[in-house]
Each structure stands twice: as structure tokens, then as C-alpha cells.
Amino acid sequence: MRTVTLQSILLRAWQRAGNDGSDISNIPTGSRTMMVAAANERIADCWEWADWPELCRVEARTVQGNETSGFYIDYEQVGETPMGEVFAVLRDNPATHVAPREIPYTLLGDTIRFPEATSLPTTVYVRYRIRPETYTTSNLTATVPAVLAKAVAYLLTGDLLEEDGQMDKAMLMEQKAESELISQRDKYVFQQNQPTMWTARVNQY
Asked: Is 18 helix (H, G, I), strand (E, B) or coil?
């Protein structure tokens, strides 16, 4: 996965808002703290805007439970990466099967629930989005997925402009961010022939 540093995003936003963004030291400590807090929110927004291939995983997971308690998979299992949003549960490994079969499921709390155990395998393949990182001012060299970087910088610029009362310019930055996200998504869908695969259903079990 291609990445850029959080610092480079902050500097880009700071400079675009009309400030000296040649060095991170030019951003006052208070403003830097505010920008990192805002960056966490903006990165999460962009992270969840689409099922970006770089941020999704397909992993084998062990089915838990029994016929009495029901069958399920916890979002957090010992020794496994905590799951964010779930998009599909598959009977077959998509890395080795051209048309993996999907298994019906329902999302309830922090679990994936299976309404019945008919021929349910003990191991299934879950396609999910990893959880966003949380960034701090003590580690500005931490990396951010490059696919999100430009949109996040636009959004942070908008936050700075809004703080300065420049609402029209802030709104323009929001529009630029959305256009950038659409552009990045279209690269996957139209240029790389990777259509969206959202299949999750959120219902009461």
C-alpha cells in the first residue's frame, strides 16, 4: 500500500490555507494539536467513504458458538486483526475460487451472526475493512494511505478556513475533497475494473 506521512498532509493543508508550510515547526503547537485531532476525524471519514482495496482484507475466520447459543464470529478474535465494517462472508477462498459462494449473515453489535447452521463450515472467509489508525502529535511521521491523502488535506484546509471565518472557501475545499474521493474510486471501478463489493446487511438478528 502506498502511503504518505501525516506531517506532509498537515503541511499541505497549512500552506493551502495561506500559511508558511515549508516546515512543520512553522505550525504553532496549538494549531498542530488541533489539526491532528481534526485529521483523525477527516481520515476516518475518507477511510469509510468507500471500500478501498488497500484498506480491505479477506481472511479465514473460525466460526464460534453452537446450536444452542447460535453461530457467530466476533469482530475481535484473539490473534486476529480487529475487523471494521464487514462486506461479505464467503464459503470459499476467493484467492483460489473464481466465484466464491456467499454465506447469509446478519450484523448484531460486534458480531457476525449466522441465522442457521445448515452445512456451515467451521472456517469461513470474511471480507472486511480494517479499522482507521489513530494519530498523535508525537508521531507526525506516521503514515496515511496515499489514496486518502489529497482529500484529507482539502478537508483540513477547509477546517482551517472555517476557523478563520472564510466559509465560502471552506465549502470549496469540501467540494474538492469529494471530487478527489470520487476520482480515486473511479480509478478502481473504471480503470482497474474493480467494482464495489459491498454486501453487508445490518438488521436485527
From this structure: coil
**Whole-angstrom distance, CA of residue 184 vs CA of residue 205:** 35
For the chain, give the mean pLDDT: 90
The residues with which 112 forms a beta bridge, in sequence order, are 73, 107
Closest CA to 121 of 92, 141, 163: 92
The single residue listed with the C-alpha cell 469540501 is: 174
Domain ranges for the chain: 3-48+133-191, 53-130
- Quote the CA–CA distance of 12 and 176 in Å, as a whole number: 14
pTM of the model: 0.86
| Gyration radius of the chain's alpha carbons | 20
- Cα atoms found within 13 Å of the Cα of residue 154, Cβ hemisphere only: 18
Cα–Cα distance between 145 and 3 in angstroms, integer?
A: 4
